[in-house]
UniProtKB/TrEMBL annotation:
<dbReference type="GO" id="GO:0045892">
    <property type="term" value="P:negative regulation of DNA-templated transcription"/>
</dbReference>
<dbReference type="InterPro" id="IPR004111">
    <property type="entry name" value="Repressor_TetR_C"/>
</dbReference>
<feature type="domain" description="HTH tetR-type">
    <location>
        <begin position="86"/>
        <end position="146"/>
    </location>
</feature>
<dbReference type="InterPro" id="IPR050679">
    <property type="entry name" value="Bact_HTH_transcr_reg"/>
</dbReference>
<dbReference type="Pfam" id="PF00392">
    <property type="entry name" value="GntR"/>
</dbReference>
<dbReference type="InterPro" id="IPR009057">
    <property type="entry name" value="Homeodomain-like_sf"/>
</dbReference>
<keyword id="KW-0238">DNA-binding</keyword>
<feature type="domain" description="HTH gntR-type">
    <location>
        <begin position="3"/>
        <end position="71"/>
    </location>
</feature>
<dbReference type="GO" id="GO:0003677">
    <property type="term" value="F:DNA binding"/>
</dbReference>
<feature type="DNA-binding region" description="H-T-H motif">
    <location>
        <begin position="109"/>
        <end position="128"/>
    </location>
</feature>
<dbReference type="GO" id="GO:0003700">
    <property type="term" value="F:DNA-binding transcription factor activity"/>
</dbReference>
<keyword id="KW-0804">Transcription</keyword>
<dbReference type="Pfam" id="PF02909">
    <property type="entry name" value="TetR_C_1"/>
</dbReference>
<keyword id="KW-0805">Transcription regulation</keyword>
<dbReference type="InterPro" id="IPR001647">
    <property type="entry name" value="HTH_TetR"/>
</dbReference>
<dbReference type="InterPro" id="IPR036271">
    <property type="entry name" value="Tet_transcr_reg_TetR-rel_C_sf"/>
</dbReference>
<dbReference type="InterPro" id="IPR000524">
    <property type="entry name" value="Tscrpt_reg_HTH_GntR"/>
</dbReference>
Length: 300
């Protein structure tokens, strides 16, 4: 039944798009709107939009929602093979970051970047050997956007706060970045290593052996990155569902209320009554303060 209804909703949207009701780039009804109009569950409306995304009719745009994909006839015409100058590597990296920032990492491909630059896909490989190398270059450029101060901080805590907040700012600007990075197999890029050097310099002279100092650096970085992973997953969920985090919570408020009403979760019930508002920036600051307070036990 759900599959049939999803297909009907998808067919209706498809015909409205074909009739010109929605132009390329226009936002289509969100899952919440579809739920109200068709009287279906959220999962059914989400499935309908997913069907059209799979067909290439729709695409998700970060901060906007689900929009009509650009038709081939309205896309920027590609250059003929051999025509025009080849792009520099920096142009390719900037184009890749623009796509990942706007639409998320799932849409990032060598073919998509080439299309945006108006060049044949194979031209990219003259400058970037693989997508993995491209992602590494993107990481290097992203961290390079937030240079550390020229003057080092005299106290370890202040130095670690500076590094953590600048890293958070980078992750905030580029939600794809945290999931793209690896802790166990880190991408070794100069701009990120400057952060490592900054933290190790701040911990130098405190009587720590090099391994302990490096573990502290990894611990702080892991905290920042771990918080930042939520940015990309939330951006993707919002683009796919058409609901902000607050709207999603409102839609599920009845479930939470009913679970808490039985008396088994009195403290959870108090939170729901207070209408808790999750603020990732405030949560980041609280966690950073607790983490650095804890380090006082091992650092002077």
């Amino acid at each position: 039944m759900t599959e049939t209804t999803s297909a009907r909703i998808a067919a209706d949207l498809r015909s409205r798009i074909a009739a010109g009701e929605f132009a390329p780039g226009d936002r289509v009804p969100s899952t919440r709107e579809l739920t109200r109009r068709w009287g279906v569950a959220m999962a059914t409306a989400t499935r309908a939009l997913s069907l059209l995304q799979d067909e290439g009719v729709l695409r998700s745009v970060r901060g906007v929602g689900t929009v009509v994909a650009v038709r081939p006839s309205s896309a920027r015409p590609a250059r003929r093979r051999g025509a025009g100058p080849s792009p520099a590597r920096d142009d390719i990296v900037r184009a890749a970051i623009t796509i990942a920032d706007a639409e998320g990492p799932a849409t990032l491909s060598m073919r998509r970047i080439a299309a945006d630059l108006g060049i044949p896909t194979m031209t990219l490989y003259q400058h970037v050997a693989s997508k993995d190398e491209l992602v590494t270059l993107m990481i290097d450029r992203a961290f390079g956007e937030e240079p550390l101060p020229a003057q080092a901080s005299p106290h370890w805590r202040e130095a670690l706060e500076i590094a953590a907040r600048l890293e958070w700012a980078v992750f905030r600007r580029h939600p794809w970045l945290a999931p793209a990075m690896s802790l166990t197999r880190p991408q070794l890029v100069p701009s990120a290593l400057r952060y490592t050097e900054w933290v190790l310099a701040a911990l130098d002279g405190l009587g720590l052996d090099p391994d302990r100092a490096f573990n502290i650096h990894i611990m702080v970085f892991s905290y920042v990155r771990g918080m930042a992973v939520n940015l990309e997953s939330e951006a993707q969920a919002e683009a796919e569902s058409g609901l902000t985090a607050d709207e999603w919570m409102d839609a599920h408020a009845g479930t939470l209320t009913s679970l808490a009403a039985g008396g088994d979760f009195p403290h959870v019930r108090r939170i729901s009554v207070l209408d808790f508002d999750l603020d990732l920036d405030a949560l980041f600051e609280l966690g950073l303060r607790c983490l650095l307070d804890g380090l006082r036990g091992v650092l002077p």
